[in-house]
Amino acid sequence: MLTDLNSMNHAKLLSPFASLLLFSLTHGAVYAQKIGDVPLTKQQELKGTMGMPDEMKCLGFIQASMLPMDLYVSGVEEEGLATFVMENSMVYLNGPGLKNAKVGDVFRVVRPEAKIRDRLTQQLIGHYYKELGTVRIEELRPGGATGSVVLGCNLMFKGDLLLPLASKALVKFTGDKSTRMTPYPEGGLATSIVLAKDDAREMAEGTVCFLPVGAREGVKPGDRFTIYRLQPPFDAKDLIVNTAHVRSSVEGMSIGGARTGAVQSSTDYQPTMSGRYSGELIQKLSERQIPHRVLGDLVVLEVGETTSAAKIINSRSEIHIGDIVVRR
């Protein structure tokens, strides 16, 4: 009996790392199961949908200014044993925003993660908020409230903020995608990717990212942008031939007991790539004009006043922060 109790206590006191690992392993499977459980008719209705309903609640956003702490997570059910909560957990809430809340109200939980700046100008774009899930108020009491975690996109900690849950329309896209030959559209709204969800450094199809343009620039949910990467300027070192690959295979070989010496090239003629011709060629190549590299496409999911969240819908190569996007 004592052994059983010790086992239970050991399981209850999982380290934060072990609990985080468990969350990472199970959350993806649970989310996939939710999608798989959608009836076939509903799946057909959702064809072309860029983000499932629960996914739309987990996008994150960039806010121009910091949000006030009107309502926040102040504690967990197992105080002293746990520091974070997951789906189906109980949380305690505090803040002046409770005066307008009712039992049954659902809030989204967010956390300020970082200041986002333009990589070229270093101008502040805004504050990145990670969306962590949703909490429903189960009980109101003097000085506070008790809630339950309805949806968990990520771990929630004490101090995380609660915001009113706003409905988000599903975004569909069934249009054509870019090809390797898609030209750069002159005159289109152009900007660059400033952040990837969860601070990912390399992005591909399915990744959510953020753009520094929004409703102010006329951006709407469903807008498609093609992703380009500017080609680097010509580098004269590209013309250098590695002499180790052209050196004669008979270098240093003995013939009849006599050394042949070091033969520097397998050819008997003077290389053309030297002198005046080399200088002219480098000048011409430095003035070249070649098209931007086409990397893929993204579709805008949610629009703020000055920023937008988008999902990459196809990619031919890894996509990086700073890559150019142009509205089609």
Q: How would you sum up this structure, described in words?
A:
- By secondary structure, the protein is α+β, with helices and mostly antiparallel strands.
- Among the domains are: 47-164, Beta Barrel (Elongation Factor Tu (Ef-tu), domain 3), CATH 2.40.30; 190-232 and 290-327, Elongation Factor Tu (Ef-tu), domain 3 (Beta Barrel), CATH 2.40.30.
- It has helices spanning 2-12, 16-36, 40-45, 53-56, 243-246, 275-286; strands at residues 61-63, 72-76, 84-85, 90-94, 106-117, 124-141, 144-152, 156-157, 161-164, 190-192, 195-196, 208-211, 224-229, 254-255, 258-259, 293-303, 308-315, 324-327.
- Coarse morphology: elongated
Main pleated-sheet profile: 7 strands, antiparallel
Radius of gyration: 29 Å
Strand content: 25-35%
Please identify the structural class as seen in this structure.
alpha+beta
- What's the end-to-end separation, in Å? 68 Å
The ordered string of helix (H) and strand (E) elements is HHHHEEEEEEEEEEEEEHEEHEEE
Number of E-state strands: 18
Number of helices: 6
Q: Which percent range fits the helix content?
A: 10-25%
Q: Could you say what the CATH topology of the domain at 47-164 is called?
A: Elongation Factor Tu (Ef-tu), domain 3
CATH class of the domain at 47-164: Mainly Beta
| Averaged pLDDT | 83
- Low-pLDDT residue spans: 1-35, 243-255, 259-263
| CATH architectural label of the domain at 47-164 | Beta Barrel
